[in-house]
Amino acid sequence: MPEVYTVKVEEGQPATADRPAKGPVYRSIYAKDGLPELPEGRNSPWDFFSATVKRIPKSRLLGRREVVDTKVGPYVWLSYQEAYDSAVQVGSAIRRRSVNPGDRCGIYGSNCPEWVIAMEACSSQAITYVPLYDTLGPNAVEFILNHAEVSIAFVQTSKIPAILSCLSKCSYLKTIVTFSNFPTAQKEQAEALGVSCFSWTEFLELGSSDSELPAKQKTDICTIMYTSGTTGEPKGVVLTNGAVMTEVLSIDQFVDLTDKVFSEEDVYFSFLPLAHIYDLTMEIYCMYRGSAIGFWRGDVRFLVEDIQELKPTIFCGVPRVYDRIYSG
Question: Is residue 272 part of a domain?
């Protein structure tokens, strides 16, 4: 990192008889006055979300484009209160499937409102969620489901075949919930292996809107995010509530110093995979600040069209994405 972006916060120390020499400690210039501290009484990202719901319950949160007879229309939105109520109900349903605090829940599919609601449902019940890459093949899916001991999974309908192909080898997985409807033939195939299957609507009906939420701790495991496994099998990165919350507050500190913090007026374009920590923390930060999140359709051919319809004020990408947009 160029020196202009760093600041020395601790001098080096010479070697002694008891310890080796230590060089000086540098920190990003944006954190020269210290690292963010977690506020008292906030023990989980769920606290960020629920506080915003209390503050602006009717504001837009999750939006996707309406499709009627294959024709794509404008964005349709769920408010903060509506998303919160769904998360509480889904969390209650998860508990009724004998999934308890500390257990693991998989989420497999493209970014969509149900993905975020499933994530918040897990957070509400202190259950660890395990994202699976949207592009993962059956071998990696099988490995992660077993390695993380996933007992319930929320799955995009198009990803059900990948789950079914390895289901007989996944002894921990007992419940599958789709983001939409569960095709009858696939449901029968899963149930023949002893796995209970639910559509999104059916699963919501299992839950209660007034269930008591368990206490959470900063040291609880919030999520286990698997890397792509460049060499060998995917590697699971364990992130606590405290780690995720600190990252969110670090984003807030960074944008406050370099631009401006997000607000209720902002709209975020959800495009990067939620299975990556970059987009995940950005969307949690949006909920912390009360911003709206609009999802792309999952097809890169219509990426610019979705952007033109949503008119986001915030777009997070990676160099390859920006290069493709520039080239086009």
Answer: yes
